[in-house]
What does this fold into?
Amino acid sequence: MVAAMKPIALREALTMGAFHPEWPSVSTRFGSINPVRFFTMKHCCRLVCFWLLMVAANCGFSQAAPEHLQLFLLIGQSNMAGRGTVEPQDTVTNAQIFMLAKDGQWVPAKDPLHFDKPVAGVGLGSEFARQIVAAHPKAVVGLIPCAVGGTSLDQWKPGGKLYRDAVARTRTALKNGTLAGILWHQGEADSAHEKVATYPDRFASMIGQLRKDLNAEGVPVIVGELGRFRAASAEFNAALPGIARHVPHCAYVTAEGLSDRGDHLHFDSASQRILGRRYAEAFLQDGLKREAAAH
It folds into this structure.
């Protein structure tokens, strides 16, 4: 039977170990044994090391921030943020693709990239990045997600909160790389005739100021059609080539053949991946490649 043990300080137990005079002995058929004689200083060291490793893991010690990133700013509304259902393939990371998380830290990119709303899902950004690194195996891509669902072009005016946040996050990202492109998808909130009529000038003004504020005057801009499954998108889509021509170093991609997720508003996951490939193809075309390399 074990004798009663007086409480002693943990510090004393660790420093004195098995040699503390108040530790009792236990009678066994093998003789009298002091149980803590097996708790040697060697064991103490092992336990302390294990504890330190657990603390390090729980504190989330992160890898060094990636350097020399090719940065892409993702802005617009919900179809840029992504509302596609996240599938297993969308959570596979790539050692050459990073994203700037909500807290401003670089993490391996996976969907959802955005955090604008709880319904954020698969967007075009991840597939875009995969195509870029496939075309340039030595490239390391950094995505800067800033899109917010349900927003109009006027809400992206210079000086507004969305604009300020995008500029601030991009400036943070620029500490680790160079801005290579701006990906824009927006227009559902500007589909009315009177909004479409003024869109080219309003968009050109916003992009011009954004380039100045980011010291990236010639950085390429890619824009995309709205879902053709939405009847209200027709006038905006018809105007999109002219909108792109109104902005220097700008290209547009179509949404031909793409499907919605059942709500007649948002692209489904498969269509977002196709749209991402189209954005990448537009960016990688000779003219925009040369512009990106020069800036």
